[in-house]
Amino acid sequence: MSNAPSIPATDRPRPDAEIARSWLLVPGTRPDSFDAAAGSRADQIVLDIEDAVDPARKPAARDDVVTWLSGGGQAWVRINDRSTDFWSDDVDALVGLPGLLGVMLAKTEAGEHVTETFDRLHGAKPVLALVESALGIETSPTIASARGAFRLAFGSGDYRRDTGTSSDDMAMAYPRSRLVVASRIGNLPGPIDGPTVGSSHGVLREQSSVAVALGLTGKLCLDIEQLPVINEVISPTPSDTAWARDFLADFESRGRIIRDGSDLPASVGRKRSSAWRGPSASPPTESPRLGRRATGHQAPLPKSKGILRRHPVQPRAAVAQRRIPVDFGQGAAAASPSWHAESMPHRPRRSVVRMTLPEAERIVALDHDGKLDRDDADVSKVVFEAHTVVQRAAMWGGEPGHPTRRRTFWIILACGVFVAVWIAGLLIPLLLGVDR
User: Fold this and answer.
1) Tell me, what's the pLDDT at 44?
2) What residue ranges are annotated as transmembrane (predicted)?
């Protein structure tokens, strides 16, 4: 048995597992990497003693995981599926470990798999069901409703091998949506998407955005470098957060009175309870992610004052549907090329306004300083839009909707009408004279 570290590398607080966005899978055969994973940006870490471990090395990997969890480390553990001989040894070794947060049950295909695992753990730890087959997808409502089920996760790689499905977004939409519906039926938090293989952050961002659009609220990952992107894409946008706070303040100010059926987001109106009931479990905290992405409910959009109005998502999908890692706020001049996407403000996705001139000027300044990734198609489109706004402002004055620009427009229009009338006054007599 390897000498696994016994002291965790960090005490950094992590989001509650019900709303955790990034789930980092760490091979159980690499105990030297456990501390690094614990100190990463992952919302939750999962020590893997199933897929990532050769059968001959599973006992040693299990012992390393137990040693680390017994020495102060905290993590979830991905255990072998119920049909294997390793399952029993896994749960018996993990029972009572102080650092065990819960187990991820591989290849879950029935509600009984979840319940039996939960019972073998003495009902003290939640079970995250990893669904990886066609049968598991079709029985996912039963799995989500099983006693002990905490959350569903999608094993996309094994599902594709089981069904022959491609990795195309359309081909994977059904199993993902099935898990979203099953989670709602079982009154569980949103499901966790499978990992994206590869080092392309553009592909990772795209697939994470698709998962969010389908209703998934977390994502498995295999590399620490993927964590900032996943956390950024799945997090509420600044506009979402601002709207939620404004709504709650207004709701409280009017005495918590509901004006109509669509006025109150579902996550405020009812308290969702997890199906997991541990002996000392406290009621799960409500997700702060208000609005349609948290509950599937189309929450009302805020009304803005002035000339520029906010509109629902429009065809400018490249900007409206995905977050663009551009700093529109203060501190833009101090931005660094090595920024992390997680910490950057974004253009709102759920509601879109025209880019204002100050925004455009800040983006252009960042672009001139070489601090934006022009290789990213989304960033490139926003930068192009910013340059266009600045150029038009230089020609016309102000920005779209600005009083100076409107005044210029009306002056030019009036001049055009005057010239047209003057020319007509000259031409009409000449034409009439020719006719005579």
Assistant:
1) 97
2) 409-432
Structure tokens at 128: 């995250």
**Cα-only R_g, the chain:** 28
User: Closest by alpha carbon to 342, among 431, 236, 228?
Assistant: 228
Out of 3.30.160.270, 3.30.300.30, 3.40.50.300, 3.20.20.60, select the CATH number for domain 17-234: 3.20.20.60
Say if residues 165 and 173 touch (Cβ distance below 8 Å).
Answer: no
Dist. CA 58–CA 39, nearest whole Å: 25
Q: Tell me what pLDDT residue 261 has.
A: 55
Rounded CA-CA distance 407/70 in Å is: 73
Mean pLDDT by 10 residues, the chain (436 residues): 45 84 96 94 96 92 96 96 95 95 97 97 96 97 97 96 93 97 97 92 93 96 94 90 88 77 45 39 38 36 32 33 37 35 38 63 80 70 81 64 66 89 85 65
Residue 141: its H or E element: helix 140-145
49-80 confidence digits (pLDDT tens): 998 899 999 999 999 999 999 999 999 999 99
Task: Output b/e per residue, 68-90; b: 16+ Cβ within 10 A.
Answer: bbeeebbbbbbbbbbebebbebb
Placement of tokens 């541990």 in the chain: 278
CATH 3.20.20.60 occupies which residues in the chain? 17-234
378 touches 318 (CB < 8 A): yes
Give pLDDT, residue 292.
Answer: 33
Tokens found for residue 145: 């409703």
H or E element: which one contains 268? helix 266-269
**Rounded to whole angstroms, how far apart are CA atoms 420 and 415?**
9
Residues 6+ positions from 206 with CB-CB distance below 8 Å: 322
pLDDT score of 312: 33
Distance CA 188, CA 240 (A): 22
